[in-house]
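Exercise: predict the fold of this chain.
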Amino acid sequence: MSQTILRVEGMTCNHCKMRAEKALQAVSGVESVKVDLAAKEAVVTGEAKREDLVKAIVDAGYTVVE
């Protein structure tokens, strides 16, 4: 099982954190998600493709910094 770390910009509150987590959990192949609001980071475990994870974050209204 692999782990993907995404730097997420635009999250400002716990609602944002939960929205980002929900968006990532909906991606096929995701086993678990942990979003750290203070670090602006999402750690995703599973076999999901990075581009699918990035799309989920962007569709949720946030930006992924490479």
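Check your answer against the key: Strands lie at 2-9, 30-36, 41-46, 63-65.
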